[in-house]
Amino acid sequence: MARDKTSLKLPKENTEAADFLPLLGTDYVELYVGNAKQAAHYYMSAWGFQPLAYAGLETGLKDKVSYVVQQDKIRLVLTSPLKSGGDINKHIDAHGDGVKVIALWVDDARDSYVETMKRGAESYMEPRALKDDNGEVVLSGIHTYGETVHVFVERKKYSGVFMPGFKEWNPFYKPSDVGLKYIDHMVGNVGWNEMDKWCQFYAKVMGFAQLVSFDDKDISTEYTALMSKVMSNGNGRIKFPINEPADGRKKSQIEEYIEFYNGAGVQHMALATDNIIETVTALKNRGVEFLSVPASYYENVLDRVGSIDEDLLPLSDLGILIDRDDEGYLLQIFTKPILDRPTMFIEIIQRKGAKSFGKGNFKALFEAIEREQASRGTL
Ligand SMILES: [Fe+2]
After folding, report:
1. Are residues 100 and 27 in the same domain?
2. Is 143 annotated as a binding residue?
3. For residues 215-235, average pLDDT
4. Which of 159, 228, 334, 335 is least surrounded by Cβ atoms within 10 Å, i.e. has the fewest?
């Protein structure tokens, strides 16, 4: 397989991407989960999301329930089936809890559907207008890797809390936020030799261009390896790294994911903060568990990344990783899997000029993941 040269020089605006959609941002991420009520409580109590909207039996739904929670620009929809045997049940049976929908905010959902279908997309949902007293939301959708889908959301004529069919959800319990701002990127794991296929899908069907790639020399440890390419839309608001496994001496984290998720799917969401020390301190206090790196990581990290604004001590106490590219540096940390299956996790990222994804941390990070895999007997 051809391996592209790694480049950390990222264009300010990705001029190669033909932004015919264009995408205004991530509208929401919907997870299919076994128990939406308890999942919503977890994202509120542990992650500081705020209650926003609800749909279920009380709003006229017969077979499913959804809770919508929000923190700044990040909106999660947590959906569970109320009856047996439906599509949501099958999704949970196959994958466990996981991301079903990465919804993208557009100006024109009908046009987004027509344009992506014309370029070879597989239809998930034909355009449909949902209406209530607050106006109209237009949705359409296409398939991407695995059973994951993209829903295009047009909401310029809507003033309600989320979308028609949902009512405001305003419980007494509203824990304080933890300073999470927006989704920086969302990473997909795909199977052996499928990375290029899905990068081409984002290029051809959605007009994305490739930002950067890593080969297995960048991302390998003694035991495991993977390859990764980052696809971005034209205005850079949507970034989708795509990973595939590469040969290593033992089972890679991507293979472990594919095995437990039963195929391709979302591996992690990276959530941005303006103050990673405060955010991660709050998350740890609320019980969120992060991967730890050995103390030796901090002994020479400043030789690698140069001087930074933060004191090193709180970063090393919390296990926050540091990397630098031509444009600045970034701080990042990764949770352990947040679900029962060792599938999805969350990254917290603070960018201080850097536009890259933490390549310099991959080795330390993957060795930490391997320690966890070894404890699960899946290395
Ligand atoms: Fe990431």
Report:
1. yes
2. no
3. 76
4. 159
